[in-house]
Structures are given as C-alpha cells and as structure tokens.
C-alpha cells in the first residue's frame, strides 16, 4: 500500500473514532454490501434511463401529432381576435385581462370563462 493511501485510511479511521485496524475490518466486512448497494443503484439508474427514453419518445410523437393549438376552428377564432385585449371572468367570478397574441390565449380565455354545471 502506498504511504498516501495508508495516510488516507488513517485519516478516515480517525474521523470515525476508530483505530486503523477496526476501520479496515469494518470496510472488509461491509465490502459485499457496498457491491449490492452499487448494483441496486445501477439498476435504478438504468430504470430511470428507460423511463426517460420512453418520455422522449412520447414527446417526439406528441410533437408529430396535430394538437389542440393547431385546431382549424381555434386558428380561425385567433385570426379574428389577434392582438385584441379582453377581460375574462373565471369560474370564481374574478376578472383578468388577456391579449390574444397566440392561439394559446384564445384557448385559455375559453377554458377560464367556461362555467360548468355542478
């Protein structure tokens, strides 16, 4: 063992309030648990990578499909409201102002101004 490594082990043992011998014994006893924990972490990482890949695939497919913001009727409404300012009352009776800069604002105004029968 190199003197630098021995010094590091001595420092780690002292930080834990143990002798070098006790510290080395503890490391040796727990060496298999570290591998098990490492394998579990690796499995979790791989699982998360698979989930992320599935999400990327779903997002890509969603981008390729026509969405509500490209609906013909919504686009027609937007063209008639473009750059106009409006006050919308939400379902709770509160008012907010909106400027129709994109079809998204038209959709927002429609959603918030819709009152549902409960």
Summarize this structure briefly:
The protein is 66% helix and 8% strand. With 118 residues, the chain is mainly α. It folds into two domains: 3-64; 68-113, no CATH class.
Main sheet, how many strands, which sense, barrel?
Answer: 2 strands, antiparallel
Distance between the termini: 76 Å
Segments where pLDDT lies below 50 for 5+ residues? none
- The succession of helices and strands, N to C, reads HHHHEEH
Fraction of residues in H or I helices: 55-70%
Domain count: the total is: 2
| Gross geometry | elongated
Mean pLDDT: 84
Number of helices: 5
Overview of the structural elements:
By secondary structure, the protein is mostly helical. The chain has two domains: 3-64; 68-113, no CATH class. Helices cover 66% and strands 8% of the residues. It has helices at residues 3-15, 20-29, 31-64, 72-81, 103-113; strands at 85-89, 95-99. Strands 1-2 form a two-stranded antiparallel ribbon. A hairpin with a 5-residue loop joins strand 1 (85-89) and strand 2. Helix 1 (3-15) packs across helix 2. The radius of gyration is 31 Å and the shape is elongated. The model has no long low-confidence stretch (mean pLDDT 84).
């Amino acid at each position: 063992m190199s003197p630098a490594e021995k010094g590091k082990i001595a420092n780690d043992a002292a930080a834990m309030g143990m002798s070098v011998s006790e510290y080395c014994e503890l490391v040796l006893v727990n060496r298999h648990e570290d591998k098990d924990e490492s394998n579990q972490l690796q499995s979790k990482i791989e699982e998360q990578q698979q989930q992320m890949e599935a999400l990327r695939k779903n997002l890509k497919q969603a981008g390729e499909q026509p969405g509500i913001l490209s609906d013909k009727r919504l686009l027609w409404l937007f063209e008639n409201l473009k750059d106009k300012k409006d006050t919308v009352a939400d379902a709770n009776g509160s008012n907010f102002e909106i400027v129709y800069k994109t079809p998204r604002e038209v959709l927002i105004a429609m959603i918030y101004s819709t009152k549902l029968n409960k």
